Amino acid sequence: MIESLKNKKLHFIGIGGCGMSGLAVYVKHLGANVAGSDKRTSPYIDQIRKNDIQVSIGHDVKNISDCDIIIYSSAIKDDNCELSFARQKGIPTFRRGVFLADIIKDKKVIAVSGSHGKTSTSALLSWVLDYNGYCPNSLVGGIMKNVNSNVMCTESDYIIVEADESDGSITFFEPDILIILNIDDDHIEHYGTKDKMLDAYRKIAANTKEAVYVPDKNMADLFKDSLNGAQLIDFSIENLGFSEKFSLNNVPDGIEIEMVYKSNAPYKFYIPVFGQFFITNFLSVFAVSDRLGVSVEKFQKSLSEFKGVKRRAEDWGVVNGIRIIEDYAHHPTEILALLESLRNCHKDRIICVFQPHRYTRSKNIASSLADSMGNADLLVLTDIYSADEQPIEGISGEFVFKQIIKKRNANIKYLPNFDQILKNLLMIVKKNDLIVFMGAGDIGKLANEFKNELIKLQVVSI
User: Fold this and answer.
1) Does the predicted TM-score (pTM) go above 0.85?
2) Three-state SS across 413-428?
């Protein structure tokens, strides 16, 4: 176990990522002297600097000349000058997930895992427990709107974290309580096979001390022989009612869930976020909150004040009669779930602007994307967001486009750059369109530019 961090000098390589930035702030809260570097600026760097953490843009060995510990993002390659220099000098280096798993071992750890929904679930659980006086520490993979941050630092023994399977560091966590939301075929490029990825989930389940929560019997069957004394709890609810609520202009406003719990009269829960895909997140948080002693009535009240997470079905409003939504979805399962939810409530045209994410992922999932995008009346593809991956020969946005048109040969466009897309959208959009900007990269920049251009047109028309 890493010794006390108080007054130690830590440097974060790749500090501008969401996971790294939150961890840097949390480590500073623990008493460490923290600095970091990244190759470019990011929306999280301003938040880091507000916490008096020095950030260098650009990597240079001078940044780490007197460091005690180096923490690096899984996106950082071995030939990074700072990382390779630290290893040459014998400075201890830790991958982000491994370091996080180690420094929280003395906490009451609630870990949220799964291919999809980790951030929304972690944010909801953080809010419910904070609202009800548990004041947990929390490290979340997105900006929680209730606190306008991706990190909550307190003196509580509780800490809520996402156990990320993407780089294998999930196996280092030893949580008290574990939520497994789902297991999909994302990040196969790391594991090689889905079975090997499943083994990583079995390892964290085996490391869990008190309880492992899973969404159904099928998932329970996968883990029933993996536990070392922890309870295995299926958090599904039979006879659960679900309905979507709409605002006056017939767009998603939230969901209402009705269920019978412990043989009592039906309880109703309203969540001001939309999408049937959110139900699993809700049920897991309800189950864990109940275990920790949050009453149903208090849970209901805190739930109704949850504001969600930025970039998760985030509603940017209506301009000139056009609804704008941004979402982080980048895997076919996530894309299908979001577009189905939008189609359930929006009967007019849906335009999806999709930014493929990473060369390896795009190579693996391109052929299955068409099936997930059927609810988009018009699909616009950008070039691939690399996330600092090295290019793969023959893999580009055009490759993704050619794979999709094998199944969908109409109402699809490939426009590599944002300027082309912006000009095209402004020519074709009309009142009552819903446009969703989708992807795990920087697609939000385009959403913002598009909204600003619509506002200009609105002013001119007035």
Assistant:
1) no
2) EECCCHHHHHHHHHHH
Q: Are 119 and 162 in contact (CB under 8 A)?
A: yes
Tell me where in the chain the CATH 3.40.1190.10 domain(s) lie. 105-304
CA distances from 153 to 83, 143, 420 (A): 28, 14, 43
Residue with tokens 């998932």: 219
CB atoms within 10 A of CB 104: 19
Q: Are 144 and 309 in contact (CB under 8 A)?
A: yes
**How would you classify the pairing of strands 322-327 and 314-319?**
antiparallel
Q: Where in the chain is the domain with CATH 3.40.50.720?
A: 9-101
Once rounded to an integer, what is the mean pLDDT over residues 191-206?
Answer: 85
Cα separation, 229 vs 210, whole angstroms: 7
Fold observed for domain 314-461: Protein-Tyrosine Phosphatase; Chain A (3.90.190)
In DSSP terms, which residues pair with 177 in a beta bridge?
A: 110, 211
- The CATH class that applies to domain 9-101 reads alpha beta
Where are the CATH 3.90.190.20 domain residues in the chain?
314-461
CA 152: distance to chain centroid? 16
- Tokens at 10, concatenated: 């830590």
User: In terms of Cα–Cα distance, which of 210, 127, 197, 135 is closest to 163?
Assistant: 197
Rounded Cα distance, 412 and 415, in Å = 10
345-415-444-100 Cα dihedral, nearest 10 degrees: 110
Q: Who contacts 420 (Cβ-Cβ below 8 Å, separation ≥6)?
A: none
pLDDT digits (tens, 9 = 90+) for 241-294: 766 655 544 555 677 888 887 767 788 888 887 777 788 889 999 999 999 999
Distance CA 95, CA 100 (A): 9
CA within 13 Å, CB half, 46: 5
| Yes or no: domain 105-304 corresponds to CATH 3.40.1190.10 | yes
Q: Is the per-residue pLDDT at 31 higher than 60?
A: yes
338-to-164, 335, 360, 446 alpha-carbon distances in Å: 22, 5, 23, 19
